[in-house]
Each structure stands twice: as structure tokens, then as C-alpha cells.
Amino acid sequence: MKQNMTRRDWLNKSATVLGGSLLGSMAGISPLKAAPIPSSNAPVRMMFNENPYGPSQVARRAMRKAFSESNLYSMRGAKAEFKELMAKLNGVTPDHIAVGFGSGEILKKAALMNGIDKGELVSPVLTFETINRYAKTMKSNVKRIPMDGNIGIDLDRMADVVNRRTKMVYLCNPNNPTGALMNTDELESFCKTMSKKATIFVDEAYYEYVMDPNYRSMIDLVKQGRNVIVSRTASKVHGLAGLRVGFAITTPEIANRMESYLTDSLNIVGLRAAIASYQDEKFQVFSIQQNNKARKVVTDFLDEKGMRYLDSQTNFIFIKTEIEITDFQPAMEKHGVIVGRPFPPYTDWCRLSMAKPGIMERFNHGLDQVLS
Ligand SMILES: Cc1ncc(COP(=O)(O)O)c(C=O)c1O
Asked: What's the mean pLDDT in 60-68?
């Protein structure tokens, strides 16, 4: 990767370049014209924010090669290799990296740390739940802060409740299930101030999908030695969710502590696939481009219908259907689409994960029928 370009610059640039070759062969899909509805009756998964294309061919080759290593306890070497690669790609040294069985494990280890320290956790009402649930398992008090009027994360209110009992603050950027970004400058300033009082956990599971040029990862704060944990995953853009590889970028002290809690359940096939996939830039660009196309198929349709949805920087969209999700889910399933679960208190909203662009027509068609 070019030294003077950020990774995002590179991906955006490459996405444009590749548009003519790799993606050119994918027929352009006009969202509003009735594209043919896929004929298979099997319902399409649009509920777990999975990558419909992964793993890449490069990752698959690495996995096949790793089969022959599977009788060996060789994951320690692969883990060190993975750490070195993540360190290099993110401009830190390997001692800043803690590897997890998915970033879900990193979230649980953070909750474990917080629990051992007898700390309170502060997190928004509407966000990814793993850390909150595990904090409760650890018998920690979890303070949930309501969203602002635009269903954004209310950093001011979060700052107000941080006190000496708070040992951790969880922020997901872009957030799940909203897909929305926080203002980068505001987030950075929050992290700088609050990390003097508590560990700030910034979950960047959807980092690669973000197209907003103003977006910045909070890794720079880690590089400044601040009390910040950033998590990333191979489950999304890389399409390796079933193989469970994720990691934290944090201070060597926290990384070391997290590593000491890791249950060591990593596996060689997953690690080898991830090592290969993170170097397979073409596939990342392809995944991002296809995701953008899929999102546009849906948002053009929603715009035409005059329906509200949040600006998504991820592989899912949060849509106000005005139908209770417990009714909407089964209704959509009849049209061959499985959508996301309820996200209280926003129960007349639906989180829709992106499938392949052509398949998203099935959602549009089903929505049209359900609304009529
Ligand atoms: C925001 C967020 N963080 C973390 C995860 C966990 O991902 P994994 O454990 O597969 O890395 C997810 C999964 O959907 C997520 O949406």
C-alpha cells in the first residue's frame, strides 16, 4: 500500500479503477426498473450483516492450504503472523494488537476487564449488544444513554454520566443497527477527554465500508498512547464470519491484558484465511463496490416511496417501515427475505442487511407488497 495514501483513499481510488474491469462485467442494475426477481424460493438472509460474496478466492486457497496444517498446534505462529500484518497495515507495532475469536471475543474480554475492575460501563441505548450483555454477566452496572433526536449517539449525555465508577465507555462507529457515523471531530474530542477517566472502546467492525471522506479511525488516539481500544473484524468486508477472526488495536498494556484473557480458541484455517484476505485488496474493493450498489438499489426505491431511512456507511440500512418489526419480519419472509430482529425502542424500524445487488430487488418487491 502506498505510504502517502490512507487505506481509505486507496480503497476509494481502487474502487474507481476496478469499476471498469472487475466490476464492469457485473451488469448495472437500474434500481427502479423491475429487475427480475430471483427465482429460488429459499429465503435470502438479510439479517446478520454478512458479506454475500466471501470468502475471496485468495482466502479459499489459503484455507485449503491450511487444511494440511490442521493436525499441528501451529496457530501460535499464524497468530504472530496475523498480528504482524495487522500492525503493519495499521501503522503500529505488534504489541498493540490483541487477536480474538472474532471481534465478539474482544468485546467480551473488554467487559471482563471492566468487571474485574468492578467498573460501570456506559453505552448508548441503540448499539451492538455483545459488550452490554457480557458486562451484565460480569454483574457490572451498565448505563444506557438514550439516542439523540436523529437516532445518533449523544456524546454530551454520555460524557455527563461518566464518573469515577465508570471504567469503560462503548461506542460503535459506524453504529449498528443504525449504520450511522458520529461526527469524527466530536468523537475524537470525546475520546481525548474521556479516556483520562475511563477506557474508551470504539468498535470499528464496519470501518472498511465507510465512504464518508470526513471519517477517521480512532487508531490515531491509540498511537498517541491514550486509553482507547479499537476493534476490527475479518467477518464483514472479508466475508469470514464463520471462521471467527477479529482483533483489537490498543495500548501494549491493554493488549497484553486482553491477550492474557484470551481463551486461545483461534484456529489455523481462520487465521490463514484472514492473513490472505487482508492482503487481497481487489476482493475488499469488490465487496465494498457491490455493497454500495446493493444499498443504492434499496435507497433509490425507498426515496421513490418517500420512506425514511438513516444514512448508512455500512452493509445494512435502518429503515422506518412504520410497521412493528414483529409483524414486518414474518410478512417479509413470505416474500423470501429474512430481515433483522427488533431493536427496541425503535420497533417500527427494520435493519436490512445487504445481499447481492440484484437480490435486493426481492426486498423492494416484498416491501411494496407488504405496504400495499
Ligand atoms: C458492531 C459489531 N461489532 C462486532 C461484531 C462481532 O463481529 P465478529 O465477532 O464476527 O467479529 C458485529 C457483528 O455483527 C458487529 O456488528
From this structure: 97
